[in-house]
Design a protein that fits this description.
The chain has 370 residues and is mainly alpha-helical. The protein is built from 13 helices and seven strands. It binds glycine (GLY). Glycine (GLY) binds next to loops.
């Protein structure tokens, strides 16, 4: 236990150092994925969903620092500086990703200060996201087209629940809940694996088929999508208290633990062909570790809860020992071996900013439990 604590604390110190260096090297730049270990390059974004993760790490560092110290003041100042420009996205009706953007930033800021103005930003973001709800089909559509639903949406729909709870708006709550039930019905399979995307008939709302953007195939299980499902269904259970959502998160977690490599790190797609199976996605492992820690606290069964927490800890230990970029002095990220978009060749076997954020979140959570 003491060795785990030391390893996790040491890795968090390295994470802080890497974030601080990125701030100093490229002020006001929001990293997304590295190219040969460098954050700044002219590679495409595909879609603009990541600005919250860099300041999100700063909020975690701020929370960990003793109030009133130089360190606490530094992280507070930087976190606010990188968070404020995100406020305008609360009106961004084109984005399906307002949960990613606001849970990592304004939500953390609000938790620290309880400032009502920050809460208003979160409520507006939730209302904007709810406008993506399609009555025919009962889902929040993805950014690619109106007939498309992504598993990633499970990480964002919590923003609609949040706005519903804060305002007492039953209609918002109903939309969020129905979205979860639709995603559960069409994207989660009987064995707990997930499809990345569902396609609907936009007129009738009839579900047509499973598909993918970033996974290997429409019928495969893209590992990051599965990790989003583990985390997202658990969060939506916390908002809705609908035990079906907790059960779904548990089934997805069980699939993950049965199919990830023995060290807890998955291939980028569980059904990738042999020629590409060695390509891992450490960002999926970081998200899954954070989800398992959360699920470990939520499950009624203490044995299973303990199994999830210790699996998360083992995964974190492996990430810290084998995948942290500490030895490579030129590497600007924290965690090596993440994947963004294989087909578009974006951020393949690189550091990815959501991997960094969920890794830091999981390290912080695990240290709170040791
Ligand atoms: N768009 C979310 C992801 O790449 O996981």
């Amino acid at each position: 236990m003491e060795t785990d604590r030391q390893l996790l604390e040491e890795t968090l110190r390295f994470a802080q150092q890497q974030v601080r260096r990125t701030i100093e090297r490229t002020p006001d730049f929001y990293p997304m994925y590295t190219r040969d270990g460098k954050w700044k390059h002219n590679g495409e974004a595909w879609t603009d969903w990541c600005s919250g993760f860099f300041p999100g790490m700063m909020w975690i560092f701020r929370k960990r620092a003793e109030g009133g110290t130089v360190e606490a003041r530094y992280w507070q100042e930087q976190a606010e500086r990188y968070t404020r420009p995100i406020e305008k996205r609360k009106k961004d009706a084109e984005s399906q990703d307002l949960g990613f953007l606001f849970f990592s930033t304004y939500y953390r800021w609000h938790r620290l200060t309880k400032d009502a103005r920050l809460n208003e930003v979160l409520i507006e973001a939730g209302r904007t996201l709810a406008a993506r709800y399609r009555e025919a089909g009962q889902y929040l559509s993805s950014f690619v087209s109106e007939d498309s639903l992504f598993i990633d949406s499970m990480m964002n729909v919590g923003m609609v629940f949040y706005a519903a709870n804060e305002t007492g708006d039953k209609r918002l709550r109903e939309m969020a809940h129905r979205h979860c039930l639709t995603a559960r019905r069409v994207l989660v399979r009987g064995d707990g694996s997930t499809a990345h995307e569902g396609i609907f008939d936009i007129e009738t709302g009839e579900f047509i088929r499973q598909s993918t953007q970033q996974g290997y195939r429409g019928d495969s299980c893209w590992s990051r999508g599965l990790a989003w499902a583990m985390y997202g269904f658990a969060t939506c259970y916390e908002y809705s208290r609908d035990v079906r959502l907790l059960k779904t998160a548990e089934e997805c977690a069980d699939y993950y633990l049965r199919n990830a490599n023995a060290d807890g790190i998955p291939p980028w797609d569980f059904n990738a062909p042999a020629s590409r199976r060695n390509l891992l996605d450490t960002s999926a492992a970081a998200i899954a570790a954070s989800a398992l820690l959360r699920l470990g606290r939520l499950l009624q069964d203490p044995m299973k809860g303990h199994f999830y927490s210790s699996s998360a800890l083992m995964t974190l230990r492996m990430l810290c020992e084998k995948h942290v970029g500490k030895k490579d002095k030129k590497w600007e990220g924290i965690l090596k071996g993440g994947v963004y978009h294989v087909h578009k060749e974006l951020g393949v076997d690189e550091s990815v900013i959501w991997g960094e954020y969920f890794f830091v979140e999981a390290l912080d959570q695990a240290l709170g439990q040791l």
